[in-house]
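Changelog-adjacent note: as of this version, every example in the card shows the full chain rather than a window. The one below runs 335 residues end to end.
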Amino acid sequence: MADTPFDTDLIIIGGGPAGCAAARMAAGVGMRSILVEPDRLCRNLYRIPALNNVLGGHTNGPDLADAIMAELKGTELCRLELGRRVTELRAADDRVTVTVDTGVRLTAPYAVVATGVGPLQPHDVTWITAPDGHVLPPLWEAEADDAQGRTLLVLGGDRPIGTFLRAHPATDTRLLVAYPAADAYKIEEIRDDPRVVLVPVEHLTLKAEEDTPVSADAVGQDGTRRTITADAAYLSIGNAPTAPPGDLTRGPDGYCPPTDQHPRVIVAGDLRSARFQRIMTALGSGSEAALHAYYAARDVPTKGETTTAGQATARALGTSKAPAASCGGLRRIAR
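Full-length structure tokens:
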């Protein structure tokens, strides 16, 4: 590293499928990377009990997570910083600087931000009213024993409901799925499951009552009112982006559109948009993000691009020459 002013060639923030894919792709083209993750790698995959939409023959999240973790830990060009949280991301004309919770600052020509999303809570949506401070667990955290012989109120019609049902096909449970009109297209895959009762609502008010574990007043989409009781309540209302503080451009919904970012900051995975939250799309976008940094460091345009990241930076600075990105590790190209 004597010939470069940077700590590494690429800093990757987030150790989910997108971040791990970025690290593997970076290593494949000879780039050194530092991956910063506050938890363990692919932590959310360990909470997915059933998979039917990924390549590789993996049928559950833990098996896929174990395979990804084994590959990452065997990737020599990737330095893992697990148990570390990014407190600030700064992008300049020639570098990015990432500060972690120990106070250490890391520098690189480019950063991939793949911090993903976290579950929304009732107070995050307008169609649910809940007591102050009321927090519910997401459905994907529920185990078979939590549902066996019980009635569960599920708030929202997001897709983890289908995953839960496929993972526990023999579980004797009753899911009361209360969902707004915006979720109507999401419930098609669960509509015919006999364990599911669909409750389309305009608004739902959770009540705090001691004699019943869960009670809620619902106003239906047709205006009718009813009281719903259940043994427990879980969330399936979607996710919220979990971007680190600093130089990231956020849209009105909190997500970080890749085309709106500083040229040296590349957003990948679920953080891009609410519409592309799938394991397969995360893996693809993470791989593409690493290649974006690889080509941009050489000022090589990718197909369909009219300007490279370096050229875009130069234009933003009002100069005719793109800033140099000295990446010592980029000399080694995998054959």
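Structural remarks: Residues 279-297 form the longest helix (19 residues).
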